[in-house]
Amino acid sequence: MIPDRGVEDLLRHLAPQVLGALVRRYGQFDTCEDATQEALVRAAMRWPTEGIPDNPRGWLVTVASRRLLDEVRSHQSRRQRENALIAATPQSELLGRPADADPGAERDDSLTLLFLCCHPALSPPSQIALTLRAVGGLTTAQIAAAFLVPEPTMAQRISRAKQSIRTSGTTFTMPEGPEGAERLRAVLHILYLLFNEGYTASTGPDLTAPQLSGEAIRLTTWLRRLLPEDAEVAGLLALMLLTEARRPARTTPDGALVPLAEQDRSTWDRTLIGNGVALVTEALARGPVGPYQVQAAIAAVHDEAEHMDATDWPQILALYELLEQLAPSPMVTLNRAVAVAMVHGPSAGLVLLAALESDNRMVRHHRLLATRAHLLELAGEHAAAAADYREAARRATSLPERRHLTTCATRLAS
Q1: C-alpha 406: how far from chain center
Q2: How far apart are CA 287 and CA 282, in angstroms?
Q3: pLDDT of 340 higher than 90
Q4: Residues 224-254, buried b or exposed e (16+ Cβ, 10 A)?
Q5: What digits encode the pLDDT tens for the residues 168-196?
Q6: 316-335 pLDDT, tens per residue?
Q7: Helix crossing, 29-50 with 5-26: angle to 10°?
Q8: What is d(CA 23, CA 28) in angstroms, rounded to the nearest whole number?
Q9: pLDDT reported for residue 120
Q10: Which residues, including other chains, have CB under 8 Å from residue 214's CB and lie 6 or more apart?
Q11: Does position 79 have pLDDT exceeding 90, yes or no?
Q12: Which of 175, 228, 331, 350 shows the smallest number of beta carbons within 10 Å?
């Protein structure tokens, strides 16, 4: 059966709401997640032919609840757990709500669910996988395909993540105060990592994985609706939109990488740029300024330049200096070195890069070598640049990046 696109989009929208309702009602995240997935599959099979119920969320909650209770009843060794669950559940819930129940009768626990999936007990890869499955509504097969790993491998990762949630003893509540702010930073970081992996895949034959970056934008847009007053949420969404706007120009028809300086800017998505600029402008005016807002402002300066030579590099350098104060990291310093080179000359940029060569986090990273090669080329030191391009290509794990760096080395050598 060919899936109905409208039904598929609706199910992905409802997935976190249904799972959130079940976890709040019954606990047991792992079994609730399995029951939700089965309800989604059943809806995907029936709704395209039978029609969407008047209250699709109520339908899914009812089907998933019945599946969950059937699962509990089916194991005699879980009798005590069954009795506790049934005793804690109103009889009206055991009977299940009708499909046309009042859609507004249940609150939306999606944000709590997202915070749970980004629990600090989980590693970032596990947080991403669990977020895509539980909140994004993607199947295990879809997530595995996006990350270029076998489906059983991804299934094990998700299973371990759910087990970690169970053993952590966490409750299904929204953290408040400092803990809530800290967890929100973790949520934003996971969405940021998810977008970056989709925009520039770390491994594999393709430069990008549009499904991942698209999902990151969808989830961040949804998060902004839930937290409309948070300036950093708006800043992250602006950063994604402003960066995603360049996707059409990032590769040639055969998938080869096109660097920013050589991109055809007429193909950039001006609607995304306009939306991103409006978002970051509003967020910066609200304050206080955070790292995602500053990164979005840098992306906006790039996107608003009609061509590479029109880029306001002094403004970009000032923004990177601010970003390094707010969120220092080797990658920020690496990017600041490029801005320094564009403002004060490549030699000044190379001096800044030299400080990173003793940083254990960067010493083996191909981007440090690729950036140094670029600045050496600008300085006219072609032999040294070619050598760095070749070594960067050797270390790169993305095939399009490796090919691009090899092409740069060959061009300079010849």
Answers
A1: 29
A2: 9
A3: yes
A4: beeeeebbbbbbbbbbbbbbbbbbebbbeee
A5: 877 788 777 888 888 898 899 989 988 99
A6: 999 999 999 999 999 999 99
A7: 150
A8: 6
A9: 82
A10: 198
A11: no
A12: 228
Half-sphere exposure (Cβ direction) of 113: Cα atoms closer than 13 Å: 33
262 is written with which tokens? Answer: 């050589």
**pLDDT of amino acid 229:** 92
Q: Which amino acid is at 5?
A: R
**What is the spatial distance between Cα 248 and Cα 241, in angstroms, rounded to a whole number?**
13
DSSP string, 122-164: S-HHHHHHHIIIIIT---HHHHHHHTT--HHHHHHHHHHHHHH
Least confident of 104-113, 154-163, 247-256, 296-305: 104-113
Dihedral angle of Cα 73, 75, 81, 87, to the nearest 10 degrees: 10
Environment class of 64 (CB within 10 Å of its CB; exposed 0-12, middle 13-18, buried 19+): buried
* Helices of type H across 255-329: 270-286, 291-304, 313-326
CB-hemisphere CA count at 13 Å for 267? Answer: 12
Give Cα separations from 154 to 26, 120, 132, 158 (angstroms).
26, 20, 11, 6
pTM of the full predicted structure?
0.80
Q: What is the C-alpha separation between 244 and 198, in angstroms, rounded? A: 10
C-beta neighbour count of 410 within 10 angstroms: 13
The letter for the amino acid at 331 is M
Place of tokens 């270390």: 395
In the chain, what are the helix, strand and coil shares in percent, each to the nearest 5? Answer: 75, 0, 25
The Cα–Cα gap between 361 and 98 comes to: 56
Look at residues 206, 217, 219 and name the one whose alpha carbon lies nearest to residue 146.
206
- DSSP assignment of 238-276 equals HHHHHHHTTGGGSB-TT--B--GGG--GGGS-HHHHHHH
Cα-flanking dihedrals φ and ψ of residue 42, to 5°? -65, -40
Q: Are 119 and 170 in contact (CB under 8 A)?
A: yes
Residues sharing a CB contact under 8 Å with residue 18, sequence separation 6 or more, in sequence order: 36, 39, 40, 57, 60, 61, 64
